[in-house]
Amino acid sequence: DAYIARDWDSLEPLLAGTGSFHDATAELVFGGAEAQGKAAMMTLFREGYAGIRRMELRPLRAFHSGHYAIFEGELDWTLQLDRGGEVSSVMPFITILRIENGLIVSHRDFADYAPFLTALRATRDDVSE
What we know:
- By secondary structure, the protein is of the alpha+beta class.
- 26% of the residues lie in helices and 50% in strands.
- It has helices at 8-11, 27-30, 38-48, 114-128, and strands at residues 15-23, 33-36, 52-65, 68-80, 86-100, 103-111.
- Strands 2-1-6-5-4-3 form a 6-stranded mixed β-sheet.
């Protein structure tokens, strides 16, 4: 919940010092999103995701198995563009957390960024017309 709400101050104490984050599917949007260690994760979230204006997860399924918590849903989000303007999209989204001793040691996101990239292309087409 803190991650989706971009409530970084609430999220930070939930992370293990040696925790890691990776969203390999974000390569085309964020140039890849990966961080090792709590400090690097918080820098990525606070600075790398600063352009995210809103996020809402419409949950489809969630389950816990052993050390893992898996969340699947549709992410409805808006990103402010560097050149001005915003792009909004809804896309399939999965988060997999590994939790040890009550702390997140691994956070993996997987998303289908195709709807976002389509919406982004549409804003570029509007500018060129």
